[in-house]
Amino acid sequence: MNAQDAPAPESALVARQGALTLLQAALARRGGLDEALGAGRFLALSPQDRSFARAVAMAALRHLGPIDRALDGKLKREPTAPIRDLLRLGLAQAFWLDTPAFAAVDTTVSLTPKPLRGLVNAVLRGVLRDGAPAEAPEFLAPPWLLARWRAAYGEADAQAIAAQIALEPATDLTLRDPPDSVMAADLEAETLAGGSLRLVRRGDVATWPGYDEGRWWVQDAAAAIPARLLRVEAGQTAVDLCAAPGGKTLQLAAAGARVTALDKSAGRLRRVASGLARTGLTAETLTADAADWADARTFDAALLDAPCSATGTFRRHPDVLWNARPGDIPSLSQVQGRLLDSAARRVTPGGILVYSVCSLEPEEGEAQVRGFLKRHADFRLEPMTLGEGGAPAAALKAEGWLRILPHHIRGGLDGFFIARFRRHSAD
Ligand SMILES: C[S@@+](CC[C@H](N)C(=O)[O-])C[C@H]1O[C@@H](n2cnc3c(N)ncnc32)[C@H](O)[C@@H]1O
Question: Which pLDDT score, from 0 to 100, does residue 203 have?
Fold first, then answer.
């Protein structure tokens, strides 16, 4: 956003207060940012204020490591959390949103309690004098996550992953009726391998061509790969065990499968239903816990896009980096193992199971596959071929699974792990 897009002076403080609320919610807990973006108080702001507030909060989150490093160089004592957040937002505006430095400082100072205004003013001016902070990858990622990525992928890939944190992603769409060159042209989109569209366009997607007719949905290019790898054919049965918000269910339905979509969250499942309604696609939607879903049916294809630490989604959700805790990973791994065991029961002999997670952590990916194959002698890996489903070449591993890293294509994509299994035929 450019300086001329910044809100008018009378709403300047309202928008910045909105940004503060978003940043505080984002750093308080996982999912906090999405909740705050959907809260009545935030939705009551003007569209311009909302978009500015979101842009400032997102910039603060994408550059949080370097911002905090710069602040630590100027602060003699740790300020309260709200003051640090205000400082972070002030710097985010001045360095990454083209807000004039004087406006960033003045508005931040105005939102500061009187006794602390001198301090905030001095700290901001001090950092601004030094210029934008260094954005070396080791400053962008939380150190414990960077250490994990180093251990898993080596120094060069770990650095390349972390370098993506500061970059604002494009918007990716999945087409309902691919290929749709008319739609691609109307949206001025680049068509990626696999058929996803990539757009530089920003703003409210509901106003874009083709939205009302349901000709596409928003879905990261990497998130669109797992459903393609099920290779469902028209009329086959498919179960999507963790379906919400529903991009993969829509893909399976668009491919002509008879889809059953499960999610344990009734609220999130409503988003699947509204996506189906908008696109005119059909699927059976059920609120259920996939681990103990009491349903004896088996399916030609099963997709388990399991709940995970979501560390691969930091390009669109930079807050995941700062909310993730080391202890999350072993507990999520246990859940994933249970869900995989349940998924296995849903696959007809001869049928396919795809397991995916938007996590960069090997315990949630490679280790799950190894454990699953030990527990389920009736399944074997069904290796992916080079480029299948639009996957980047670098993601294909010798075992035949995909480890997609965020820098694997120009412009980036979400980090994902994807494996495909086939259940032995009964005969
Ligand atoms: C990674 S998201 C799925 C994203 C979805 N596949 C898509 O493409 O839009 C994980 C989902 O799993 C759901 N979930 C978590 N535990 C579950 C369980 N035990 N049974 C069913 N759904 C579960 C969550 O509510 C969440 O919607």
Answer: 86
Instruction: Give catalytic status of residue 242 as yes or no.
Output: no
pLDDT digits 0-9 by tens, 278-329: 999 999 999 999 999 999 999 999 999 999 999 999 999 999 999 999 999 9
pLDDT tops 80 at residue 11: no
223 CA closest ligand 1 atom index: 8
For 3-130, the fitting CATH number among 1.10.3720.10, 1.10.940.10, 2.40.50.140, 1.10.357.10 is 1.10.940.10
Q: Are 322 and 382 in contact (CB under 8 A)?
A: no
Q: Which residue has the tokens 């210029």?
A: 131
Q: How far does Cα 245 stand from its chain's mean position?
A: 12
Strand 216-218 and strand 171-175: the pairing is antiparallel
For the chain, residues classed under CATH 1.10.940.10 are 3-130
Cβ(31) to ligand 1 under 6 A?
Answer: no
pLDDT value of residue 10: 62
How many A from CA of 85 to the centre of ligand 1? Answer: 31
CATH 3.40.50.150 intervals, the chain? 220-423
Please identify which of the residues 145, 227, 358, 409 carries the catalytic annotation.
Answer: 358
CATH superfamily of 220-423: Vaccinia Virus protein VP39 (3.40.50.150)
For residue 243, the CA-to-ligand 1 centroid distance in Å is: 5
Residue whose token pair is 């042209």: 185
